[in-house]
Amino acid sequence: MDDLWAALGLVLVIEGAFYALFPQGMIDMMRRLPDIPASSVRIAGIVAVAIGWVVVHLVRN
How far, CA to CA in Å, does 50 sit from each of 26, 46, 47, 61? Predict the structure, then answer.
């Protein structure tokens, strides 16, 4: 369970860093998001999950 909290904390650190370092870029990205088809967003999410799973698998084994 500690690993889960550590992972969630790391996600917040990384995401927060993007907002802190590139605030205008993040705002611009959010403005363009409605123009992106839902299927593309879904595929990007699936790819992110797969890459994350592989990274965790490689680190843990």
Answer: 23, 6, 5, 16
* CA 45 – CA 39 distance, rounded (Å): 10
56 alpha carbon, distance to own chain's centre: 14
How much is the pTM?
0.72
Q: What is the DSSP string of the chain?
A: -HHHHHHHHHHHHHHHHHHHH-HHHHHHHHHHGGGS-HHHHHHHHHHHHHHHHHHHHHHH-
Q: What pLDDT digit, counting tens, does each position of 23-40 carry?
A: 999 999 999 999 999 999
